[in-house]
């Protein structure tokens, strides 16, 4: 085996001496196609996961941005209507704004006249529903961020198995072109899995931060509304 390796190395040196060395380049498509069927299937799965993660991220990002837009004068108008007993006008204003904060305040307005504890409970229940709506499909990003690298490592194991299998059937001679398919599968799937995992992880954390800001906004407006109802007439 050692003699074979030395002969192959000597032939490579002679080939370079006979002519100009050729610089080889490898595109991403060629790299994926060189990984065999197993590598291509895993890359396709990871690509679909990346597309799904990208769609969820931008869909949720636009929805959260729309939910966070509330007129700074909204609560002042609500308190003015409630102070003057214009409950219907306050409810109409909440319906026109159509945001998590307005729906939350609208639920509280519909409970005016009942004990303050009942209004607070209604606001908490409505808040949970609004938070659930904001976090819709966000958990899938967390799943993709964990599953992406694992699927990539699965491709790595499959690639190494293929490489070892080809090595065992090589009859005592080592040829890199025979091992290339398995090695390409191992490396490309690992890189692809890590890319998908990193992108999904960053997207998930960014949406969590954006959602927390909306939740804080809802809590602040709810407390302001309850404080106004608790003020002495």
TrEMBL record:
Keywords: Cell membrane, Membrane, Protein transport, Transmembrane, Transmembrane helix, Transport
Topology term for the membrane: Multi-pass membrane protein
Gene Ontology CC annotation, any one: plasma membrane
Transmembrane segments: 37-58, 138-164, 184-204
Domain MotA/TolQ/ExbB proton channel: 98-219
Family stated for the protein in its record: Belongs to the exbB/tolQ family.
Protein name as it appears in the record: Biopolymer transporter ExbB
Species this protein is from: Yeosuana aromativorans
């Amino acid at each position: 085996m050692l003699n074979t390796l030395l002969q192959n190395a000597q032939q490579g040196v002679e080939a370079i001496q006979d002519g100009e060395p050729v610089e080889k380049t490898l595109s991403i498509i060629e790299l994926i196609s060189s990984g065999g069927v197993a590598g291509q299937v895993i890359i396709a799965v990871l690509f679909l996961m990346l597309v799904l993660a990208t769609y969820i991220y931008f869909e949720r990002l636009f929805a959260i941005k729309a939910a966070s837009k509330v007129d700074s004068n909204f609560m002042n108008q609500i308190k003015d209507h409630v102070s003057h007993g214009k409950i219907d006008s306050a409810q109409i204003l909440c319906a026109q704004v159509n945001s998590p904060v307005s729906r939350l305040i609208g639920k509280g307005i519909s409970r005016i006249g009942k004990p303050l504890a009942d209004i607070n409970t209604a606001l908490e229940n409505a808040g949970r529903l609004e938070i659930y709506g904001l976090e819709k499909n966000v958990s899938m990003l967390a799943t993709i961020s964990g599953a992406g690298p694992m699927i990539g490592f699965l491709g790595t194991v499959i690639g190494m198995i293929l490489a070892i299998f080809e090595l065992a059937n090589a009859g005592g001679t080592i040829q890199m072109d025979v091992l290339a398919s398995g090695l390409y599968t191992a490396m490309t799937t690992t890189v692809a899995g890590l890319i998908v995992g990193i992108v999904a992880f960053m997207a998930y954390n960014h949406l969590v931060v954006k959602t927390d800001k909306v939740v804080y906004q809802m809590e602040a407006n709810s407390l302001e509304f309850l404080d106004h109802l608790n003020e002495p007439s």
